[in-house]
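Hi Prof. W.,

I finally got the Bifunctional NAD(P)H-hydrate repair enzyme prediction working! I wasn't sure whether to trim anything, so I left the full sequence exactly as given:
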Amino acid sequence: MIPMRGLWTTARVRAAEERVMARVPAGSLMRRAAFGVATAALELLGGKRRVGLLVGAGNNGGDALWAGYYLRRRGVAVRAVLLAPEKAHAEGLAAFRRVGGRVVDRLGEVDLVVDGIVGLSARGPLRPDAAEHVAHLDAPVLAVDLPSGIDPDTGAITGPAVRAAMTVTFGCLKPVHALADCGEVRLVDIGLGPELAGPDLAELDDAEVGAHWPVPGPQDDKYTQGVTGVAAGSATYPGAAVLATGAALLATSGMVRYAGAAADGVRARWPEAICTGSITDAGRVQSWVAGPGLGTGLSAEAVLRTVLEAGVPVCLDADAITMLANNPDLWDARDPDTPVVLTPHDREYERLAGEVGHDRVAAARRAAEKFRAVVLLKGHVTVVAGPDGRVLVNRASGSWAATAGSGDVLSGLIGALLAARLDPVLAAGCAARLHAVAAERASGGAPIPASALLAAVPDAIRALRSG
Ligand SMILES: NC(=O)C1=CN([C@@H]2O[C@H](COP(=O)(O)OP(=O)(O)OC[C@H]3O[C@@H](n4cnc5c(N)ncnc54)[C@H](O)[C@@H]3O)[C@@H](O)[C@H]2O)[C@@H](O)CC1
Ligand SMILES: Nc1ncnc2c1ncn2[C@@H]1O[C@H](COP(=O)(O)OP(=O)(O)O)[C@@H](O)[C@H]1O
Ligand SMILES: [K+]
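And this is what came out:
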């Protein structure tokens, strides 16, 4: 079993909330939620005393008004803008007014804004009236449940949206909390736990990745840990071979075989790799990585067929994906039981399976089902979908990995984890997390080439294993 941080879609959350609400006094969930918001607000205020509420038409606004009520009782000056006065949560508004909360047309100068514009019912970006109030905010924003304007289930931002310093959410995390920037995310328990079955998606945290990372035991030798095969690079693109092979070498101990036209370059940089010019005499491996810099000609197609026929787990990237998109018959070479991990970026995905669209999780799921493969859709948020419906997501803390060649490193990492016999969904998820951590550690705030990201792999493994 993979322990991880689960995320539940809005439909599942609502169903669970209904079951809890049926057995607790009316309004008690909202007050618990609001109390959590007020507690976080006091912390963010750090002694300052002016809070502004943006209150929408539904229960998210109700949470904000009740939070305003609790803040007033702690002596905080609270004013509220009602975006839809006639629909504002009646009890919340009455309670807020009772303790001296003021309703105003504009927030004016405040120390903290509580965003109660819209929560789980959000559809699309902020509407113009709400966007107008959000556009000129100077104070930090505490979002109730989620930053308004971001889609709760997809994390898509398609227009004006709130940018939150912190988000306080209730009962469980929702996809938006992993797929989009919500600031620091805090979870308030409202008793949903027993009503929630397994999550729709999950995030691996650093300690989990560290715990899954393969470590040699006393009985291991270079073969027992799994041999990674790399079929990448060409006379034109030898660098891709050097990066992918290096990543496989640094990811696990054991052994890496390289087969292809960049053998001399790989040998020169990585003397420990076993290099050969042709895949036909590469020797036995427990996984293949194929595609980076490989080219898309007839000899590259032959390489792709060979790895698909090999009967070991395969990670296919870059040119391998393009070849499969151009010539789907190449899939016939695959033994139906062979696990395949595809690692497209958005343009490669389009070639393979059409538009990615705003729902990246759905896109990864579609392709995973279509190809019966694990699909790792790259980007700032990386989505890993398995053919069995499991989904892992990883949001990078920065974007320094957006540099040429960093994908080659990722494919080498995945190949090594596959050779070590990690479950392919987990292999892709752990590799994506480690890759993002390596990028941040290598960068330290400055641009880095992919070779620096690669060099930071051991440091990142150490950090995750000690986390
Ligand atoms: N159901 C429950 O048990 C609980 C719900 N809680 C709160 O209730 C929220 C859900 O409340 P509701 O279902 O009433 O709906 P919301 O408060 O999320 O949405 C209210 C209204 O906002 C408007 N809206 C939708 N999209 C918009 C956009 N893009 N820009 C501006 N306005 C938009 C719509 O008119 C919508 O009906 C949760 O997010 C949470 O904050 C909490 O009180 C905890 C308990
Ligand atoms: N904006 C971003 N923020 C964080 N990581 C990113 C971003 N854009 C791309 N990445 C990561 O960088 C890598 C780029 O891979 P890819 O596009 O295949 O590059 P290349 O083909 O040049 O190696 C992927 O791991 C991807 O997830
Ligand atoms: K909100």
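The mean pLDDT is 96. Does that look reasonable to you?

Thanks,
D.
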